[in-house]
């Protein structure tokens, strides 16, 4: 050997390389196991495609193959071409879809009231914006140098003023590349207090409320997703990512931004990220939460990210809208989003730092939160306390 130093260098280099491979190999599996994505599949000629596609017939994608259950949703999805358009004021159209559903489901009359209301209007998805009387409260479009990297789209309800204010004062504060919007239904409705003038004031003061004129009830939450997607297409088509969260969530924005910026482009392009449920099934206890009658839906839910908070790639917005026009309505917004992603051939990615059912005894412990990206539910008071503690330079964990 003419160069003993070279040999030494070479063996040191090889050791380092081995170490790097070992570290990468040992630090990947948990993320990859449930949803082998491009990051965890071994390098090969055909990495999993992050590109959405929408086949002419969605039955196979949505698992509706022979023998088909007789439940309404399954039958409907099998037959469905495109849901009728139009708004609820038109005769026929979307209302006719609901009336046909009611007529076809043998035990419709025994369904819980909210599910009956949902089905009757489920195909009606076009609602006008609710704007304060006397003007003002306009939500600005994304303007060219200021196109957000991350849009925080927070589902709230008109009466939840304190929850919205806590978000504005904590994790939703103005930050470079980040924009905050709240999604709400109408502040008035039959049998409810009229919050119109209070919400109008708030809307003028903050210009961050996207309101639409539909009844803001749990089974109408999918309308917020769909109307937001349509709004984005017109007013913010180039946003990179959208966080869909509830107003009782708490999000570690700087850590989330770091995570998103570090994603390989192939992952980022088809992103649907959150706390993913893969084995969920409809609950069959009448009167219980999330009850789904057997005559309405049979089978398991698609893999979906918990609606407490998840991220999607902005470029998927028009794809999701197209998918939604062809996926039969389902009452739970997060399951419905899962169905639409499945229709597009995209799988959710799970992240262990999204905890959408965080135990209440942890909610005020800043050390427990330090390595997390999103938790809920937190009260407005707990959000503010946690925010202060996290910014305290004295914090030792
Ligand atoms: C999808 O394909 C199945 C047969 O594979 C067919 O029976 C069904 O009607 C098709 N659905 C639509 C919407 O074309
Ligand atoms: C959703 O809102 C529409 C429009 O206000 C209403 O007709 C429908 O009954 C609401 N859905 C439910 C489940 O209450």
From TrEMBL:
GO terms for biological process: poly-N-acetyllactosamine biosynthetic process; protein O-linked glycosylation. Keywords: Glycoprotein, Glycosyltransferase, Golgi apparatus, Membrane, Signal, Signal-anchor, Transferase, Transmembrane, Transmembrane helix. Gene3D superfamilies: 3.90.550.50. It is a single-pass type II membrane protein. Pathway: Protein modification; protein glycosylation. Its main location: Golgi. Residues 1-18 form the signal peptide. One of its GO terms (cellular component) is Golgi membrane. It is found in: Golgi apparatus membrane. Residues 39-53 have a biased composition (Pro residues). Residues 33-60 are annotated as: Disordered. Belongs to the glycosyltransferase 31 family. Interacts with B3GNT2; this interaction greatly increases B3GNT2 catalytic activity, independently of B3GNT8 enzymatic activity. Beta-1,3-N-acetylglucosaminyltransferase that plays a role in the elongation of specific branch structures of multiantennary N-glycans. Has strong activity towards tetraantennary N-glycans and 2,6 triantennary glycans. This is Hexosyltransferase.
């Amino acid at each position: 050997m003419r160069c003993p130093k070279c040999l030494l260098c070479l063996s040191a280099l090889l050791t380092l390389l081995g170490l790097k491979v070992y570290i990468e190999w040992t630090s990947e599996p948990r993320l990859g196991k449930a949803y082998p994505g491009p990051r965890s599949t071994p390098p090969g000629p055909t990495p999993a495609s992050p590109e959405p596609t929408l086949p002419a017939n969605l039955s196979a994608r949505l698992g509706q193959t022979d023998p088909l259950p007789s439940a309404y949703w399954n039958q409907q999805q099998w037959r469905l071409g495109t849901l009728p358009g139009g708004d609820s004021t038109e005769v026929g159209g979307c209302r006719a879809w609901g009336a046909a559903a009611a007529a076809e489901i043998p035990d419709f009359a025994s369904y819980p009231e909210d599910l009956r209301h949902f089905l009757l209007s489920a195909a009606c998805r076009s609602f006008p914006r609710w704007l304060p009387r006397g003007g003002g409260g306009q939500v600005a479009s994304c303007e060219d140098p200021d196109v957000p990297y991350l849009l925080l789209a927070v589902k709230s309800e008109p009466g939840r003023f304190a929850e919205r204010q806590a978000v504005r004062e904590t994790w939703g504060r103005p930050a470079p590349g980040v924009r905050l919007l709240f999604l709400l239904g109408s502040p008035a409705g039959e049998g409810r207090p009229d919050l119109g003038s209070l919400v109008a004031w708030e809307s003028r003061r903050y210009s961050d409320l996207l309101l639409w004129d539909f009844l803001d009830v749990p089974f109408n939450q999918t309308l917020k997703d769909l109307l937001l997607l349509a709004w984005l297409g017109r007013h913010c088509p180039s946003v990179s990512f959208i966080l869909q969260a509830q107003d009782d969530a708490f999000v570690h924005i700087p850590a989330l931004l770091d995570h998103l910026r570090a994603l390989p482009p192939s992952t980022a392009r088809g992103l649907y990220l959150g706390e993913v449920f893969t084995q969920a099934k409809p609950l069959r206890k009448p009167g219980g939460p999330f009850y789904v009658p057997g005559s309405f839906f049979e089978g398991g839910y698609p893999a979906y990210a918990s609606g407490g908070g998840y991220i999607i790639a902005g470029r998927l917005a028009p794809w999701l809208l197209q998918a939604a026009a062809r996926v039969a309505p389902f009452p739970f917004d997060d399951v419905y989003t899962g169905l639409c992603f499945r229709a597009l051939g995209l799988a959710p990615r799970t992240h262990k730092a999204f905890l959408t059912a965080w135990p209440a005894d942890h909610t005020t412990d800043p050390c427990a939160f330090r390595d997390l990206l999103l938790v809920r539910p937190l009260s407005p008071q707990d959000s503010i306390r946690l925010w202060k503690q996290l910014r305290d330079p004295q914090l030792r964990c």
